[in-house]
Queue: 2 jobs
Job 1
Amino acid sequence: MTQSKAAKKIPHISEFPLVGSLPAFMKERLQLFERIAQKSDVCSFRIGPVRMVMLNRPEYIQYVLVDHASDFDKGQIMHKAMGGNNGLFSSEGDFHHQQRKLLSPPFQPRHISSYADTIGHYGEQIQQPWHNDERIDLNQQMISLTMSIIGKILFDTDVFSETDELGAAMAIGFEHTVQVLTSLYSPPLNWPTPHNNRTRKAVQQVESRIQQMIDERRSSTIERNDFLSILLQTRGDNGEKMSDRQVMDECITLFGAGHETTEAALAWA
Ligand code: HEM
C-alpha cells in the first residue's frame, strides 16, 4: 500500500501501563467516554490488553451498525460474555438475519400495543407503597418494575422479581455477562470457581424452568399471547420452526436486553 493510500491512524487515549483505561472504565465511565469523545470522533483506548474503538458521530455508528453491518462481527468478548447463548444479541450473519425475521411477529404494532396495559398496570402497582418524603432506592424499584413487565410479556408469569427463583437466577446469569464484558480477565465458565459454579447453577435453573414452560404450552390447547407462545408458533418462509433450544436462547436474550436497558433509562430519567 502506498503511503497516500495507507489507512489513517486512529487517535488513541493512553492511560496506564498494562491496564490501560480499565480503572476509569470501572469507576468513572461517563467521564472516560467524555475524555475520549473530546479527543476525536473516532478514538481508541485499551481495557487491559483489549483495544477498543469508540465512534462518536451518529453517521459513523450508522456506517458500522447498518450500512456495513455485514463487514463486522460482534467480537470475541460478546460471545464469551453470552456463554454460548445464540440469541439475537450474539448470533451472526445469515443465521442472525433469519432469526430477525422469525422473531418479528411479537414486535408487530398490534402486539406491542397490547403490552401497554401490562406496562401501565405494573407502573401503577409499583408506586402504591411509596409515601411522600420517603427515600426509595429508585434503581432497585425500577429493576423490579422492568423485571415484572418483561416476565409478564415474555412468559405470562405474574410474580417476577429478583426474589422469585427464576428472576433471581436470570439476574445471576446477567451479572455474569456484565462481569465478563467489564473485567480485564475472567476465567472460562467451565472452571470451578465460586462465581462460575453459581452462574452455572443459575443457568441450569433458568433453562429447566423455561423448558417446563415450553412443555406446558406444547401440551396445552389454551391460546396465549405471551412472547414464548408466539415464538413457539412462528414459522419461517418454508414452514420451519425454531428448536426449543433456540426459543430458549431468544427468550433469555430478550429478558436481558429488555429489562436492564429500560431499567437504567427509567432510573436515570
Ligand atoms: C431504553 C431501552 C433500550 C436501549 C437503550 C436499547 C439499546 C440497544 C442497543 C444499543 C442494541 C445494539 C444494537 C446493534 O447492535 O445494532 C440493542 C439491541 C437489541 N435490543 Fe435493545 N435497547 C432497549 C430496549 C430493548 C427492549 C425493551 C428489548 C426487547 C424486549 C430489546 C431487545 C433488543 C434485541 C433483541 C437486540 C439485538 C437486536 C439484533 O441484533 O438483531 N431492547 N438494544
Note: DSSP finds eleven helices and three strands in the chain.
Job 2
Amino acid sequence: MRNLLITGGAGFIGSNFVRYMLEKYPDYRLVVYDKLTYAGNLDNLKDVAQRFAGRYTFIQGDIADAAKVDEVMREHEIDAIVNFAAETHVDRSLMGAGSFIQTDVYGTYVLLEAAKKYGVERYHQISTDEVYGEIPEGYSSVETDPLHTRSPYSASKAGGDLMCIAYFTSFGVPVTITRGSNNIGPYQYPEKVVPLFITNAIDDIPLPLYGDGRQMRDYQYVLDHCEGIDVVLHRGQPGEIYNVGTGVETQNIVMARRILDLLGKPYSLIQPVKDRPGHDRRYSLNCDKLKALGWESRHTFEQALEKTVRWYVENEWWWRPIKSGAHFEEYYTRQYQGREI
Ligand SMILES: NC(=O)c1ccc[n+]([C@@H]2O[C@H](COP(=O)([O-])OP(=O)(O)OC[C@H]3O[C@@H](n4cnc5c(N)ncnc54)[C@H](O)[C@@H]3O)[C@@H](O)[C@H]2O)c1
C-alpha cells in the first residue's frame, strides 16, 4: 500500500490521521478527498500542506459522487481507502436525517464500488461504538454483538458497516472496520460537547449539560484512535471488525467539572438543559481483539483532557472564527435556546 485515499480527511479525526500517517510512513502518498461541509476545514491541514507538499494532495469532492470518486481512484492510482467521511453529529441527525443516509450509507456504497472496481489492497471503514446502542452497566460490547442503533446518526453508521461486510462477503473486497469510542483532541469542531464546553468556559459562557449529566462515555485521545486504525489497516484481518477505546468510562458531569478545574472556572457555569431525545446512557467497548494485535491506548482520560484543553487555549486562531460564524451561531441558537431546566 502506497497511495491512500483518505475520505473526510479535512475533519477532526481524519486530519489527525493524515498528519500521523505522513509522519510515520515516509513512502506513503495521501490524497484527502473531502466535501468540506460545515465540519470540514482546510485549516485542520494547514501545516500538513506545508510540511508534506510532495506527498499530500487535497481534492474537494463528495463521496456520493461516483464519477468523481472514480476519476480520483484512477488518476492517483489509489491502492487503499480509509473512509472517515460522514455526517457525524447526533443532534443534527435529530434535526434531519437525509444527509446522514446520503453520506454515511449511500456514500459508503459508492466507495465500496470503487474499492471493488480497482481491486484495492484494503478498504477501511471508520465506525463508532454508537452502533451497539445503549449498554447496561457491567457489560462491554464485543464486535460480534447485535446492533441496536437508537439515533438516525448511529442507524446510518450501522448501515455503512453492514454494507462493508456485504461487500467483503459477496465480492471479497478486503474490508476492515474499526468502531471507536468518543474522541477528544485538536481540531474537533466546537459544537461537539468537549470542545464546546472548553471554548464556552474560556469565554465564561454557560456549559449546556444534557439532563442529569450522568451519561457514561469512554473518551479517548484522538491519536490513540489513529494508532488503532493504523494497526488494523496493516495487521487486521479482512472481513473483521475491531473496537477502539480506553475501556474507562467517565460521566459527562465529571468531564464538565474537570474542564472547569483545568481552566480555573467555577462549577456554576454548568447549565443543565433538557436531555437529548433517545440519549444513550452508556457506551462501553471491550477492545481485547485490537489489543491482541499489539495496540494499547496511551493516554488516560486525565492526560487526554489536559492536552485537549491546552490545545484549545493555545489555538484560539482556529476555533474563534468558527464560533463567531453565522453557521455556528444559527445551530447553537436552534439547539440550546429555551432549553434550560
Ligand atoms: N468524533 C468521534 O468521537 C467519533 C467516534 C467514533 C467514530 N467516529 C467516526 O469517525 C469519522 C470521522 O469523525 P469526525 O469526528 O472526524 O467527524 P467530522 O464531522 O469532524 O468530519 C467529517 C468530515 O467528513 C467530511 N464529509 C462529510 N460528508 C462528506 C461527503 N459526502 N463527502 C466527502 N466528505 C464528506 C466533512 O467535510 C468533514 O471534513 C466519522 O465516520 C465518524 O462517524 C467519530
Note: Residues 27 and 108 are 27 Å apart (CA to CA).
